[in-house]
């Protein structure tokens, strides 16, 4: 299994979330398609994650939200490498930096996730 494109989405995930069995590696190299696939997956998972950032990160990384009780995993959610909290720890650092930068701007967000969600 190989993740492709800007959003690093698996081809099988992109096909499922975009309801298009013809999506291939080259399609996911197109930034627009990659973003649609990634954000559609996040939207599909919203009832499980409630769009809570650590849950979204782990669900995106592991394919859905799964419990992992390993004592080395502070988040107790499956992520790769299995049994660690490495992915979510790294994500949270970047997320917190982004929030800090956005806090300093008065420009409102212009695009909601609904634009990318394909039912």
From TrEMBL:
InterPro entries: Lysozyme-like_dom_sf, Transglycosylase_SLT_dom_1. Residues 4-73 form the Transglycosylase SLT domain. It comes from the Bacteria. This is Transglycosylase SLT domain-containing protein. It comes from Microcystis aeruginosa PCC 9806.
């Amino acid at each position: 299994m190989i993740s492709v494109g800007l959003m690093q989405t698996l081809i099988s995930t992109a096909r499922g979330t975009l309801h298009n069995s013809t999506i291939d590696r080259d399609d996911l190299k197109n930034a627009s398609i990659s973003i649609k696939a990634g954000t559609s997956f996040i939207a599909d998972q919203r009832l499980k994650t409630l769009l809570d950032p650590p849950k979204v990160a782990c669900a995106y990384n592991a394919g859905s939200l799964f419990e992992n009780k390993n004592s080395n995993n502070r988040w107790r959610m499956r992520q790769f490498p299995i049994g660690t909290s490495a992915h979510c720890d790294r994500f949270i650092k970047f997320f917190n930096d982004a929030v800090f930068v956005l806090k300093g701007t008065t420009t409102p967000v212009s695009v909601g996730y609904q634009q990318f969600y394909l039912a």
